[in-house]
Amino acid sequence: MSANEQFGFLDEYAKKEIRRTTLKAVAIPGYQVPYSSREMPMGRGFGTGGLQLTLALIGHGETLKVIDQGADDSVNAVNLRDFIEMTCPGINTTTLTDEADLIQSRHRIPEKPLREDQLLVLQVPYPDPLVVVEASEDKRKVLHGEADYSRLLVKLYEDIVKFKEITISHRYPTRINDHYVIDPSPIPRWDVPKLHNSKALVLLGAGREKKIYAVPPYTRAIPLAFQDVPFRVENFYDAKGNRRTCQRCNCDTSFLDEYIDSESGNKIYRCSDADWCEEQLSKNVSEKQLHEKVMLDEQAYDRQVETAPSSENAYQALDVPQSADEIQGVINA
Amino acid sequence: MLELASIWTPDLQQKNYRALLEATSRPGLIQPIHFSQESADALTAVLAALLDGEVSLADVDQQIHQDSWPLFQAKRADVESADYVVCQGHKAPMFEPKVGTLESPEHSATLLLSVNSLNKGPLTLELTGPGIESSIKCSISGLNHEWLKQREDWVGAFPLGVDVLLMDQTHVLALPRTTVVEIF
Amino acid sequence: MGYVAIKGGSHAIEGSKIAFDHLRTKKSDSSAPLDTDTIEHQLRLLHSRVISEGGIYHPRLASLAIKQAQGDTLEASFILRAHRSTVPRLAETDALDTSNMRVTRRISSAFKDIPGGQMLGATTDYHLRLFRMDLLNESPEQFQAISKSWMEDLNLDSIPDTFPKVVEALRNEGLLAPLEKQKNQPKPFDITREPLVFPLPRSAALSTLARGEQGGLLAMAYTNMRGYGDIHPTVAELRVGYVPVMMPHPITGKPMEIGEVEVTECEVVAMYEQQDGTPVFTLGYGACFGNNEVKAISMAILDRALQQGMKHGPSNPSEDPEFVLMHVDGIDSMGFCTHYKMPHYVTFQSDMDRLRATQEKQSMEETL
After folding, report:
1. Which of A59, A284, A299, A303 is the most exposed place for a label (fewest CB within 10 A)?
2. What total number of domains does chain A contain?
3. Which residues of C touch B54 (CB under 8 A)?
4. Residue A193 lies in a domain
5. Taking the complete model, does pTM exceed 0.90, yes or no?
6. How far apart are the C-alpha atoms of B157 and A271, rounded to whole Å?
7. Chain C: residue whose CA lies nearest to B53
């Protein structure tokens, strides 16, 4: 694939427009600022909004992390990261949340709280929470301007009457700075509290819908709820009332992916945030076991290797590749 | 061969944009502007990072060099309709900038006010609001009090408002419309 | 530079690229790779469609896009459009004057005969849709014979380069509203530089339609034609040909032709309405790159419908600017459609959580 010579792929006009848009977005927290949104070589719906933000923001020497569903090696993240590496020579990329200056993410906010010197870019498919109650953008803009979200609250109330629960799972409408209600992107409810009084600036980019909005640091971000039906995050407790833990690192405080193991057919739970899981694991696993992990290379990836199990926390087959940085030894074939 | 000062290069414009983003995200914290002394100044560097042919500029107090206009590419506009307005901070404001509309609050001006100093001076402000953990104080010299009074009016009906960038010789301090400013 | 050595998703993507290209070359022992000329000429109308939807007049790259995308028009238009995004803008011409079009086809349904005559040109309109089985085993000699033969006995001097516009005759008679004076026209809205914010100027609507995906445009226009709308259109003129692109000479300043682009233009005359006291016919206008007649006609009908909708309020979806203009771009729509194939397991996890909670609540109530 060929790309033009320009650093960051986009021409300077496109970047400047995005940059000006971000400044207005931060000055008007939660307001969706329209912009022209260039076509990128990946499809609309694949994070072109987040990508345009990253390309307009990033500079030489900065370190970037790209994740999708919390994983650095998910196909969408891989695709985007490859493209950014190719078009922005002089940047670094990493899987370590700690090392990243800029994090572009689809559907998750990292488990580890971000610092003031970090920036988060979220990929957004639907920027406007009012779409469910008003089809016309013209009319929605007036409602937003007046902070009139009564119809949205009615919709939530109707959910409660029908289902005894607020049924919104992800994309939970959240009020920013006591005015604009945003769609925080398809992050789970689990991640919504991280927007409130965040140390880091959060920028949200919708490429197809051509909007950029922001949650500034230290800003109120309150999910919509009722006094008697509060906001609730996802429930990771089993029928016996025990909090489920990650099968890999044993963490009991993270958002877990649930899936059917391809080998055993059993339901298993693992941390969605791959780097978080790594960090927890390296706290648990001894030096010896670290050395026994498979070094990531072309052949070894396809091989499944079992390490000596320490307890229930047996590190089983390698289906989540490791960053080469983490591994300290090489296993003999 | 026209030698462009480095403020016109993409690399420095990116750095200066990031300084503006940081300033706007954390009002009250002053951010350094990148430029080379011989060929530019902080104000020109900031304008170079922001402007192109899609936006308009009003130069109220003739601070901008004639040579810079074609490089900015910005359209000249009246102060009431300009996207970017440049003024001397020690002079009282004599105009009403555009504050946007309820549907499109982003159609509002960004005011760039030149002051003497952003880190010491007779005027001490206490700032609170988005981007500020609890509150922050800053001391400024060369800012006419009238600006703060007028600003109160302009930003009084959120989301309408203007966003202000205070600039001394080397740094920028942002007062987005959400920042609550008290004279200490 | 420190780069992440992630392999899992990368491997899958690499493998998929190889598989895709393998399918393209399956019959390599009995067929030759497509060349861009073949696509441009033998698949002329497909090629026209991709240029039009890609939004940049680059015949060679449009052919490459079709080859690379293995014939998927949405993908091919996407590749071309993404390329367009990277190309710097050197200058802007004045509006092209289609009355200077070097016409290859030009008809009117409004009149039996028109100045210059009805010029059918190359069209499938009157073809019998029966298979030409002889094309199955067309030999190179037969192929070449066709191209060599047809222009042999023509007197090229007797063929005019261009023809007067039919709508001019209607304007002269006062049946169609006069054109607004050029002087006070605002600059056309640039949809590639500014986002669409409603209400829109007509130039924004027309440029959005001009890059619109043909099937989507046709479907929307069809809703209007079939009866949801009230336009009662008649094609005043449909012309296809090559329009010269004029730019001022860098030294003398005189306008010079720097090239020509193939354009299809359709002017549709619709129901009359009062304008400044006199009833006149209203005009619907459609124009696009390449030879795309269904598209140009659909555009003209939608242009009229949207003008109607913006003036009187939409009375059906085809008159609603947001409904039409936000949904006709093929790149936007296919991108989003395709994105549903991406991992969504975190959001699904969240959905399952809500459903389980709701089911639990309901079953608790049932047992009470």
Report:
1. A299
2. 1
3. 193-194
4. yes
5. no
6. 45
7. C193
